[in-house]
Each structure stands twice: as C-alpha cells, then as structure tokens.
C-alpha cells in the first residue's frame, strides 16, 4: 500500500513525478482542474492530447480510463489524464458509476506505476463540475488507492478547499487508513 498524504492546495504546483488531471473524454481541455493544468503546463500538453485523439483515441478517452502525456512547464514529469463519471443522483446508476470512479483512480495508479513514477498527486476526481458528493468521492478515492496492488510509493491528494480536505481526512479515518 502506498503512503497516502492529504494536503490542501493547487495541484498544478505539485513537485511530484506525475499529476492526475480530472479530464473529460474529449481530452481537449475544460474547466476546473483541467483548465488549471493546461494553463499552468502550457500548450505542449494540449498538443499531445490532440495527437492522441488523432491516433490511438479517435473517439476520446472512455470514462474510468487514464492516459499519460508529458507535463509541459509543470514541475511534474507526466500528466495522467483520467475521466471520472458524472454524478447521476442517488440510486442504482450511482452504484454503477461509482465503479467507474474507482476505475479512474485504479487506472491512473497503474499508468503511474507503469511509468516508474515514485510519486503521484490526485485531485478529487468528479467532485467538482461533475457533481459527485464530496463524502462519497472521498471514500472511493481513499479506499481505491489504499487497495492498489502496484502503486507508486507516495500518493498525495491535493484538495482545493479545507472542506474537501476534511472529507478526505474523515474518509481515511473511517477506513482506518493512516495519512
Ligand atoms: P470534475 O469535472 O471531475 O468534477 P473539476 O475540475 O470540476 O473536475 O473538480 C474536481 C475537484 O478539483 C473539485 O474539488 C475542485 O474544487 C478541485 N480543483 C479545481 N481546481 C483545482 C486545482 N488547481 N488544484 C486542485 N484541485 C482543484
């Protein structure tokens, strides 16, 4: 199990090997973290995303999956673009999509491990524009990363607000995971 750290701050300022972008399937930029990553990282990242769309991912990146690019001007070496699900409201569909949220974390970890990253930083995937309730999003994030078989030794969650940080702290506490 990787060491898990929880911090409040801006993901794009992280000094880690890989940062995970809460992207959308189009991979061509967006709001929230996605906008911040492309603004801070510069045009190289978007150019690489466009190349992926023109070659291996003509239909975009499916929900729950992850793909790496370079990190442009960021301190990181790689950006791992992951697509979380949109919150559908409570019920059976939420249960199905929760699996996709877990997959977004699992696949990002697998990509990071495959690259040989020693450290990776995540935002709270789906918990912004995609509307996933913060407590649920935090539980899925922590539980999935803690269960990862092959992971970079350090996983940081970089939360944009104190409230989200508190949710992640509470989720770790409930799951008995040290941070
Ligand atoms: P999604 O579309 O997957 O919901 P968002 O980018 O809208 O993704 O939001 C995901 C989470 O990232 C939200 O909690 C949001 O407040 C947070 N966030 C936005 N910008 C940053 C940033 N620069 N660093 C870290 N977290 C951020």
TrEMBL record:
Uppermost EC category: hydrolase
Signal peptide region: none
Keyword Hydrolase: yes
InterPro entries associated with the record: Macro_dom, Macro_dom-like
Domain Macro residue range list: 1-176
Gene Ontology terms, MF aspect: O-acetyl-ADP-ribose deacetylase activity
Keyword Hydrolase: yes
Pfam families attached to this UniProt entry: Macro
CDD domains, A to Z: Macro_OAADPr_deacetylase
Entry EC no(s): 3.1.1.106
Keywords tagged on the record: Hydrolase
NCBIfam families tied to this protein: PRK00431.1-6
Record's protein name: O-acetyl-ADP-ribose deacetylase (Regulator of RNase III)
Species name: Agromyces ramosus
């Amino acid at each position: 199990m990787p060491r898990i750290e929880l911090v409040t701050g801006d993901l794009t300022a992280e000094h880690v090997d890989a940062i995970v972008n809460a992207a959308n399937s189009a991979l061509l930029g967006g709001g929230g973290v996605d906008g911040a990553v492309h603004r801070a990282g510069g045009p190289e990242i978007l150019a690489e995303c466009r190349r992926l769309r023109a070659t291996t991912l003509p239909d975009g990146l499916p929900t729950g999956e992850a793909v790496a690019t370079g990190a442009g001007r960021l301190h990181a070496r790689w950006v791992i673009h992951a697509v979380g699900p949109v919150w559908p409201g409570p019920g059976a569909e939420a249960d199905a999509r929760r699996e996709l949220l877990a997959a977004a974390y699992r696949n990002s970890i697998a990509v990071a491990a495959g690259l040989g990253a020693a450290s990776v930083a995540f935002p709270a995937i789906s918990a912004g524009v995609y509307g996933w309730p913060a407590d649920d999003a935090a539980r899925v994030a922590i539980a999935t990363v803690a269960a990862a078989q092959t992971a970079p030794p350090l996983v940081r969650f970089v939360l944009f607000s104190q409230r989200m940080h508190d949710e992640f702290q509470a989720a770790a506490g409930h799951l008995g995971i040290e941070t």
